Amino acid sequence: MGEQQHVRFPQEVIDEYAALGVDLPALFSAGHLGTRMGVEIVEASADRVVGTMPVEGNTQPYGLLHGGASAVLAETLGSVGSMLHGGSSKIAVGVDLNCTHHRGARSGLVTGVATPVHRGRSTATYEIVISDEEGRRVCTARLTCLLRDVRPGDGAHLTTTG
After folding, report:
1. Catalytic residues
2. From CA 39, how far away is CA 44, in angstroms rounded?
3. For labelling alongside 58, which of 5, 72, 138, 161 has CA 20 to 30 A away?
4. Is there a contact between 83 and 90 (Cβ–Cβ < 8 Å)?
5. DSSP summary character for residue 125
6. For the sheet containing 109-119, what is the strand order?
7. Within 10 Å of residue 83's Cβ, how many Cβ atoms?
């Protein structure tokens, strides 16, 4: 997601990763899949991650927001929160995702808000609420990530050169 300059990170997070030469916007993005789906992360901290995604281009044959698209948004936001909780010495790897779809969305943007349910040493669990532009809940998801130690070569393509 090359358009991540507007993401708001806590200053201590910016400082921690800058000292390591890590490109925060690349590290805390939705990656190639998120780019194709139009996912934008607009706020990111271990306490709250907010992102948006257009309904257009992410629908199923009936013209409704695809449940898998909601899952992509939810996993992206929960993973970012888990990574921020784990810090620069950990990698967050999703191990469980469940989604309950409450209503359909046919147009506009949906917004996901991820908040922690549990933040431990080895796992982090986030609840992600996805709402339509009228504030109606479209989907509720829960993501649990394993927090494992960074190994040589992890995310090397995400660091800056210089």
Report:
1. 75
2. 14
3. 5
4. yes
5. E
6. 40-45, 48-54, 109-119, 123-131, 137-149, 90-101
7. 23
Residue located via tokens 């908040």:
115
User: pLDDT for 107-141, tens place per residue?
Assistant: 999 999 999 999 999 999 999 999 999 999 999 99
The better pLDDT of the pair 117, 6 is held by 117
Own/partner contacts of 147-154, CB < 8 Å, gap of 24 or more, are 147/82, 147/85, 147/86, 147/90, 147/91, 147/92, 147/120, 147/121, 147/122, 147/123, 148/90, 148/91, 148/93, 148/122, 149/89, 149/90, 149/91, 150/88, 150/89, 150/90, 150/91, 151/91, 154/91
Question: How far is Cα 149 from Cα 144, in angstroms, rounded to an integer?
Answer: 16
Q: Is 161 exposed, middle or buried (0-12, 13-18, 19+ CB in 10 A)?
A: exposed
Quick one: DSSP state of residue 158? Answer: G
Tokens 């986030």, residue located: 126
What tokens were used for 158?
């995400």
**Is-contact 92 146, C-beta < 8 A?**
yes
DSSP state string for 39-92? -EEEEEETTEEEEEEESTTSB-TTSSBPHHHHHHHHHHHHHHHHHHHH-TTEEE
